[in-house]
Amino acid sequence: MSGPSKERAGLTRRSFLVFVGAAGAGLTLGLPNACAGTPDAAGGAATPFDAYLRVSPDNSVTILSAHVEMGQGITSGIATLVAEELDADPAQMRAEGAAGNTKLYANLATGGTMQETQGSTGIMSSFERYRLAGATARAMLIGAAAKEWGVSANEVQVSNGVISHPSGLSASFGALADAAARLPVPLQVSLKDPKDWILIGTEKFRRLDSFDKSHGRQKYTIDVELPEMLTAMVLHAPKFGGKVKTYDAAGARAVAGVVDVVPLANGVAVLAHNTWAAMKGREALQVEWDFSGAEQRSSDQLFAEYRQSVLQPPSVTAVSRGDVLASMKVAAKTVEATYEFPYLAHAAMEPLDCVVWLQGDRLELWGGFQMPDHYQVIAARHAELPHEKVKMNVLSAGGAFGRRGTPDAQIVVEAIECAKAIGWRAPVKVLWTREDDMTGGRYRPMCLHSVKVGVSADGLPVAWQHRVVGQSILMGTQYENYVENGVDPSLTEGTANTPYPLANFSLDVTTAEVGVPVLWWRSVGHSHNAFVMETLVDELATAADEDPLEYRLKLLQDQPRHRGVLALAAEKAGWGKKLPAGHFRGIAVHETYGSLVAQVAEIAIDKAGSFEIKRIVAAIDCGVVVNPDQVRAQVEGSIGFGLGAALYSKITLTDGVVDQTNFDSYRVLRSSELPKLEVHIVPSTAPPSGAGEPGVPPVGPAVANALAAATGRRSRVLPLHPDA
Question: pTM for this one?
Answer without folding.
Answer: 0.92
